[in-house]
Amino acid sequence: MKNFSVKRERSNVKSRIALLIISLFTSHFSLIGQQATWIWYPGDYEIWLSNQMQNRRTDRGTFFPVFWKVDNHYVLMDFHKVFDLKEPEEVSIYAEGQYNVKLDGKPFEGTPTRITVPAGRHKINIKVFCQEYVPAIYVKGKTIVSDGTWLTTFEDKEWIDETGKTSDISATKWLNAGYWDFNEPRRPPSKFKLPVTPQKAVKKEVNNNSILVDFGKETFGFVKLHGLKGRGNLTIYYGESKEEALSKDGAVTIDRLLINNSIAKDSVMPLSKAFRYVNIVREGTVSFADVSMLYEYADIKDKGSFTCNDEEINNIYDIAKYTLHLSTREFFIDGIKRDRWVWSGDAYQSYLMNYYLMNDNRTVTSTMYALRGKDPVTGHINTIMDYTFYWFLGIYDYYLYSGDKSFIQQNYDRMKSLMDYVLGRRNQHGLLEGLPGDWIFIDWAAGLSKKGEVSFEQLLFARSLETMALCAGIVNDKEGASQYQSLATELRKKLFDVYWNEQKQALVHSRIDGKQTDNVTRYSNMFSIFFDYFTEQQKQAVKQSVLLNNNIQKITTPYMRFYELEALCAMGEQNYVLREMKDYWGGMLKLGATSFWEEYNPAKKGAEHYAMYGREFGKSLCHAWGASPIYLLGKYYLGIKPTSAGYTTYLVEPNLGGLQWMQGKVPTPKENIELYVSKEQIKIRGAAGTGTLRIKSKTQPTGKNISVTAKGNDLYEITLLPGVEYVVNYSATL
Amino acid sequence: MKNFSVKRERSNVKSRIALLIISLFTSHFSLIGQQATWIWYPGDYEIWLSNQMQNRRTDRGTFFPVFWKVDNHYVLMDFHKVFDLKEPEEVSIYAEGQYNVKLDGKPFEGTPTRITVPAGRHKINIKVFCQEYVPAIYVKGKTIVSDGTWLTTFEDKEWIDETGKTSDISATKWLNAGYWDFNEPRRPPSKFKLPVTPQKAVKKEVNNNSILVDFGKETFGFVKLHGLKGRGNLTIYYGESKEEALSKDGAVTIDRLLINNSIAKDSVMPLSKAFRYVNIVREGTVSFADVSMLYEYADIKDKGSFTCNDEEINNIYDIAKYTLHLSTREFFIDGIKRDRWVWSGDAYQSYLMNYYLMNDNRTVTSTMYALRGKDPVTGHINTIMDYTFYWFLGIYDYYLYSGDKSFIQQNYDRMKSLMDYVLGRRNQHGLLEGLPGDWIFIDWAAGLSKKGEVSFEQLLFARSLETMALCAGIVNDKEGASQYQSLATELRKKLFDVYWNEQKQALVHSRIDGKQTDNVTRYSNMFSIFFDYFTEQQKQAVKQSVLLNNNIQKITTPYMRFYELEALCAMGEQNYVLREMKDYWGGMLKLGATSFWEEYNPAKKGAEHYAMYGREFGKSLCHAWGASPIYLLGKYYLGIKPTSAGYTTYLVEPNLGGLQWMQGKVPTPKENIELYVSKEQIKIRGAAGTGTLRIKSKTQPTGKNISVTAKGNDLYEITLLPGVEYVVNYSATL
Q1: In Å, how far is B699's CA from the nearest CA of chain A?
Q2: Nearest Cα residue in chain A from B435
Q3: What is the CA radius of gyration of chain B?
Q4: What is the DSSP secondary-structure string of B87-122?
């Protein structure tokens, strides 16, 4: 906020108030000030970049694109801002595309790269056409800089009548420009690439005409062949497992090259891939001196952390971190071998983990822009009904964790039109069932019925409507807020009227032809716990009838394990969950996993683990949804979560879950909350906002800086103020 | 149709029937057969190309793009077709973009350029990603070729479940692929450019540091400087008039070059421009040996023609033809100096003229694709309410003149969503008035009110609803057809309830705050005549009260003169219109016009004629809407028009309008109708379809091949059969 105060001193009263309003309502405009950055139409760069990224998937050397509609950027864009100058200013202009520049509506001749703006109040417009890339500009003067305060539109509607008068453009919808951190004029958005760093193999096994290279752990990047020469074919078989790399017919990704080098030269593969092993098979006179790789990564630093007395849990946490980093790239993707795509349900979990590790807003909002695409909506996000809803839920959580309203303001129209699409697909009972083209996914689970009105979909639908009501309020759409709220209330009531079964003490899986099915699954029951849709009594009943009931079909994906364990944690079952974590994630580690898998079924043996989708090596061994311990340990063991948007207020409710001690950091929009917990002592430093430390203690807690409120039942609360360190001595009841 | 019969012999019964159906219902699929052609998603190439074209406009050397939303192509496209092969076939594949190829759902490894398709029934899918260009493919085997029978989609929704099963893709919307005539694999759509041919100047005036070059008439293309050398600035001032070329501050288009050639070389300007004159000003040591140009044109041949005994009319017809050809390029544009854009109201007139001259369906449909763009609709076409309606009217006429249903089938969804946009903007009375962002254009006319509910807009709205009803019927949307028809009926009734003024015997211009305004303008009155919305009595009244009434504001643009004269012709005033034509278009010729202008006001003098929009040379001197004599002479003098879609039936009702004789051709989808008319004899050769020759004669007509039906009031009708030549002797009543 330092730049902001500098700017405020220089500006006049009117813009001072405007800036003040912006600074009060959003944390998104921290670029305000003298930092020039490349700007574009919000979401367009993200859509363009995700197209580039998602189309890098190959399968057996064949291009493997997505199967849903992908959108394209607006090719013609107008940017403007009004400036008030004390003195004339020289301004440099850079653009991606063909452009013109206007000062107060009057164009400069040609395509100026440098203009002089006279003193006084002036409006600068820059209009850009670009087909191949997203139209973008970079403007830099002493005080005039391109940033997120510029306004932009794809239809300026500025016509000129027969007398030379220009039209009223009040009807044009202007949004704030989008930006990342491309602050160099010579490094425009279209040139962006993730950084790479060289890595060496840890082991090489040289055979007759092949070499098997082991990089020691799951990794991602570009294979580099050193001193490649000779003539003939060369094939690289990539493997997340040794078995995959050695399977010429089974390896999911391969590179086939025809070499014809009379002089030895280094060669880097054109596409980055996921692997631990590569098996390189050469023919003819082809030879090379060495193999290494360029590790490709998103340079995002960790803010959160977790350590405890249990080394297995520490290992699980570390491998989870690595798994999440590998699958956090330009966007949050599902897995690095396949699909390398942005899937809404997968990304939703990455958002949540991110809030406890990197807390990187940019990757969250970029992923949501990419997923949403543009109007018209012609299908569900990724074609999956549940994935549409996770997109809404992601916005709910993003606002809660970041406090950023600007993303909602910029996106509200797209939220509305996506919800219109959903509302338009309700049946005569106001419920959703799969229509042609809809994929009801829920989870990979054998025999799971997708027929009729599935309770899980209605549940996510209700939460999405609540999100719409919240966001309508934020953008001052009062009518919308009340409509969405009443739709949500009605649907939540219906959820229980239709699916709650008193005998089973559970929500049933579905209704077909107006009749409850007999089947109970975990999905809607576990979500209803942490959505707080159940009464306390229902929660306790469901815990026994569903969550801890071995007769209910088991979950075998880390994807739904995430929510299952969250539900149990939300009910105080941290001890049970800790054992489950050690069993499940620990189980993968015992099998040599160096990143967490797409699916894990302890009943399988050896290379059976690598099969999926009817393919021997179909499974992805590095899948973001495998990294959930990051989230569980941060939210339910360290026990830290925001209770109002952006951690203005938050709760710290630590639970050792059987551990001796634990310590860690949880990021907030401003600082980290730092916490150490043993059975006798808690040390904590609060971040901006007001926290509440809630603990169970057999005795009244004592300590430095604390003021204790007893809440009954051995429950005590201590208020945490920003930046203050607290040491609390207590006597844990668990 | 020759290719078709060859194909039919080779194919099996089932596809024979399919082909038969296609051949019965559309004339669009004449490419069926062995001719491979580049194919794409329908409309996408047209949108892409129009973006390229429209962004070539410059003004004083400054890039001058449009001010409305322009759309972008889908970047990811799936194409497929099922083939039934008697024997295996080798197939070559070309694509614009990255692609994969599947046979019966199974991908080939890599990016095959040649595949073998085994005998039997097989489905070929090709999926293409391309950002810079429109994804397009070209496939060529012995019988397997890419053409308009392939299906295409932007969302195939083909997902694979955990057992490896693919999804039901019945929900995917497939359209027939789009194509032009790009039949060479090595000349893909993205490389398309209009042809050019060299042309020489007719006069050069060398001055001190400049040279004024006259190309003899309005032209369009790239200026070429021969033997350019030396060092310094060189500026080319383009002029449609000599005055403009000589006005360094006023010339609308210029090229500024910095020359640094030690060796003389030829230099062609990068952008094509409109001009008759160029004034080239050099500085420093710059010199050149000669100036010529490359004339750029759309290579579309004339099919229609008109000549008569009046040389002035023949001149008008010839200049109109040249005007229309100059402004018929990749698309029908408004004018060649400016705007060089595709404007719906302007294009609508070009469509109509086209039916009487080139009869080129491709340019009509491409222009309509480009204008419509894509969903969502965020504004009127070109921002103008009337221009949205002309788009609908254009479809009505296109179907009538071409009989092509496929364009309607491919476009019906976009027609519906555009009409939804319009319907959503009605006021509480069900009428349209300008909302923020709407441009109510009607015409360039001083002081023309655009306030309130303007009658002209409701009239076009009614006709558009009728078009929707017609097209809904064609695509078998029965519910839509009846809804649109009842909306149209209701609106037509309202038009008379609200605007007809008994005292004035005319439709008034508008209603403001529920009250008829006092003003009567020509627009809605003249359209109601040829839309046949008036009773015969109203027509006669309006002719006197409005059309021939000098107290009603005069029309000064050829744009609305088009409809004014059409209305008069529709009422049999060909003699009056002929005099008006000679006055108005003849007036421009007398002022030295070599193409017809955007606007002509006989009251102005000298270079005053070149001013418009508050600019000295703002007016365009070659504007498509100036070419209407082509239409009037074909439709109302030769008197030929279709009476059912595609000239299945048509009417020939010649009217000499004071001429001694006239002869000409009018194209139909299959052949030309050829006609000679004097006051004593008519010679005619009918095209496919059944025609009716209707003539007024003082005596019973006689002649070769004819069978005459008397209709009373000296009116006689003769049936015309395809390809037969008729000679009719009669005694004209006029």
Answers
A1: 53
A2: A171
A3: 28
A4: S-EEEEEEEESEEEEEETTEEPSS--SEEEEPSEEE
Gap between the Cα atoms of A608 and A86, Å rounded = 72
Q: Which residues of A touch B109 (CB under 8 A)?
A: 60-62
The SS3 call for residue B58 is strand
Residues of A in contact with B100 (CB under 8 A): 62-65
List of chain A residues whose C-beta atoms are within 8 Å of the C-beta of residue B170 = 436-437
CA distance A154 to chain B (A): 6
Between CA B407 and CA B278 the distance in angstroms is 42
- Please report the pLDDT score of residue B192 as a whole number: 98
Instruction: Report phi then psi at A186, rounded to 5.
Output: -90, 0
Distance of CA B63 to the CA centre of its chain: 25
Sign, Cα dihedral of B488, B490, B495, B496 = positive
Chain B residue with Cα closest to A165: B613
B379/A375 Cβ within 8 A:
no
- Based on the domain organization, do B392 and B540 belong to the same domain? yes
Mutate to test the interface with A, among B59, B60, B72 (most CBs of A within 10 A): B72
Count how many pairs of residues, chain A against chain B, have C-beta atoms within 8 Å.
176
Low-confidence ranges of chain B (pLDDT < 50): 1-32
**What sign results for the dihedral spanned by CA atoms A400, A401, A403, A406?**
negative
Residues A559-564 have a mean pLDDT of 96
Dihedral sign, Cα of residue B25, residue B27, residue B28, residue B33: positive
- The CATH code of the domain that includes B535 is 1.50.10.10
How confident is residue A159, by pLDDT bands cut at 50, 70 and 90? confident
Give yes or no for a contact between B534 and B571, defined as CB atoms under 8 angstroms apart.
Answer: no
Give the distance from residue A496's alpha carbon to the nearest chain B alpha carbon, in angstroms: 30
* B contact test, residue of A113, A133, A155 with most B CBs within 10 A: A155
Interface touch B171/A70, C-beta < 8 Å: no
- Could you tell me the residue range of the domain that residue A718 belongs to? 645-729
Task: State residue A2's pLDDT score.
Answer: 31
Q: Looking at per-residue confidence, does B163 or A493 come out higher?
A: A493
Which residues is A203 bridged to in the sheet?
A214
Quick one: A119 and A230 in the same domain?
A: no
B517 close to B452: Cβ distance less than 8 angstroms: yes
CATH for B707: 2.60.420.10
Residue A170: per-residue pLDDT: 63
d(CA B438, CA B222): 36
Contact (CB<8Å) A55/B110: no
Q: Rg of chain A over CA atoms, in angstroms?
A: 28
Tell me the sheet residues that pair with A106.
A103
Three-state SS at B729: strand
Contact A75 B73 (CB under 8 A): no
Return the exposure string of B390-403: e unless at least 16 CB atoms fall within 10 Å of the residue's CB, then b.
Answer: bbbbbbbbbbbbbb
B610 and B695 part of one domain = no
pTM of the full structure:
0.93
Per-residue pLDDT band for A245 (boundaries 50, 70, 90) equals: very high
Distance from CA of A379 to the nearest CA of B (A): 9
Report pLDDT for B458: 98
* Nearest Cα residue in chain A from B383: A157
Output the domain CATH number for residue A83.
Answer: 2.60.120.260
In a domain, A14, yes or no: no
What is the ipTM score, two decimals?
0.92
Asked whether residue A550 falls in the same domain as residue A451, the answer is yes
Task: Judge: A158–B67 Cβ closer than 8 Å, yes or no.
Answer: yes
As a whole number of angstroms, the distance between CA A430 and CA A490 comes to 10
Q: Give the single-character DSSP code of A543.
A: I
Report the number of distinct structural domains present in chain A: 4
Report the alpha-carbon distance of residue B393 to residue B255 in Å, rounded.
39
Among left, alpha and beta (phi > 0; psi -120 to 50; other), residue B355 is alpha
